[in-house]
Inverse folding.
């Protein structure tokens, strides 16, 4: 069987130039979030299949890379089902593993606990611009704090990272799942239909209000749909709530007004927080405020999150407040690369090209010289000189080497 040199579809090899940007961004993220009190943790990429299929991951549960049982546990001698031969899978996000992690270690962790997690996740999705089957997620979560202080903290921390990366004029859209449910109930939808209604509403930016209405009327009576859509007011660019629906803000105890006003009052970056009553988010585990970052230069979401107060309780039997925000790491990297982003403050790069058959004493002298430069904080590469020195030096210059020194036998 011939070996294949290309990566698996939907996954990619990362070249050094991009890796340098990724490492810089991860370092900046860790440093910034540490300043907000977040602690780094790590969870396994392989998760129990029963956890992954617990009806909390929405459409992502259809995209799981499942892992076969091993050894004697795997019996393929008779016809069987997929469920019978799998016992684990690759994680599709970092929130579910974090909830399992917290439920297992809560006695060893402070309360509230502010977690930072950066790692690979896997979804058998259709690859497209900024979307891969293996990709890095970068999440911050606050566990054990039921107050809106947690949401404010998350928004400010996330926006600080984006501002440091020179992103401006972005919008953080915010809504509340309790408001969405209250509006659906007031219109007359059955609770069992809420998620289906929200999935259709979430298509509004793609199919418009006419498309949303048409899809809703395919499934429910026109009068129910009319009552539901009458709660939204739009001027063609921005959507708000009718006066009737606005009363639900107080009835549900939603903290959106104070979250928005506080962030606006203290933010240091050039962005806006916008209440968007059509924002849904795909995960069914959200229970309260939800948020999403929109950037015109990407044409879509570059991050999101929300409150999920019921997930940890499914592990422990005890309700635990939790809220998180995830930066779309891969999409941020894509935008930086398209800008031609250069890592700031990189150490000076020096290359030593050594002619063949160099004497041992001279080689030792070259390595001592390189060590002295490294001690000054410079990056030094030592390699053998090639016949086509000009091409070799051009390649080094393209890699950022500004000081190229040649050593010959006759020196």
């Amino acid at each position: 069987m011939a070996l294949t040199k290309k990566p698996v579809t939907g996954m990619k090899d990362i070249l050094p130039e991009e890796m340098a940007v990724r490492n810089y961004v991860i370092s900046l993220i860790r440093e910034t979030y540490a300043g907000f009190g977040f602690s780094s943790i790590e969870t396994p990429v392989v998760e129990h299949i029963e956890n992954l299929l617990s009806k909390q991951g929405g459409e992502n549960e259809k995209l799981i890379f499942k892992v076969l049982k091993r050894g004697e546990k795997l019996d393929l001698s008779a016809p069987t089902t997929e469920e019978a031969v799998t016992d684990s899978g690759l994680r599709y996000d970092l929130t579910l593993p974090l909830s399992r992690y917290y439920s297992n270690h809560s006695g060893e962790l402070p309360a509230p606990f502010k977690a930072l997690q950066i790692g690979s996740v896997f979804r058998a999705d259709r690859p497209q611009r900024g979307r891969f089957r293996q990709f890095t997620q970068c999440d911050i979560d606050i566990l054990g704090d039921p107050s809106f202080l947690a949401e404010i903290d998350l928004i400010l921390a996330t926006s600080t990272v984006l501002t440091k990366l020179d992103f401006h004029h972005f919008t953080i859209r915010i809504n509340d799942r309790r408001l969405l449910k209250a509006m659906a109930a007031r219109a007359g939808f059955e609770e069992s239909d809420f998620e289906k209604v929200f999935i259709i509403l979430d298509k509004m930016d793609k199919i418009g209000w006419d498309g949303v209405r048409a899809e809703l009327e395919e499934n429910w009576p026109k009068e129910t749909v009319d009552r539901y859509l009458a709660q939204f007011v739009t001027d063609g660019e921005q959507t708000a709530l009718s006066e009737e629906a606005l009363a639900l803000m107080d009835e549900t105890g939603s903290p959106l007004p104070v979250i928005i006003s506080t962030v606006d009052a203290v933010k240091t970056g050039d962005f806006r927080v916008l209440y968007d009553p059509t924002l849904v988010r795909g995960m069914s585990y959200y229970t309260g405020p939800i948020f999403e970052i929109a950037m015109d230069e990407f044409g879509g979401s570059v991050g999101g999150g929300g409150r999920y107060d019921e997930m940890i309780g499914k592990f422990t039997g005890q309700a635990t407040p939790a809220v998180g925000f995830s930066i779309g790491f891969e999409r941020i990297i894509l935008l930086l690369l398209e800008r031609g982003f250069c890592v700031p403050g990189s150490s000076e790069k020096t290359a030593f090209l050594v002619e063949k058959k160099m004497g041992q004493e001279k080689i030792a002298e070259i390595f001592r010289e390189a060590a002295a430069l490294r001690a000054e904080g410079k990056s030094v590469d030592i390699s053998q000189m090639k016949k086509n020195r000009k091409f070799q030096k051009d390649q080094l210059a393209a890699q950022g080497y500004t000081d190229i020194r040649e050593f010959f036998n006759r020196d």
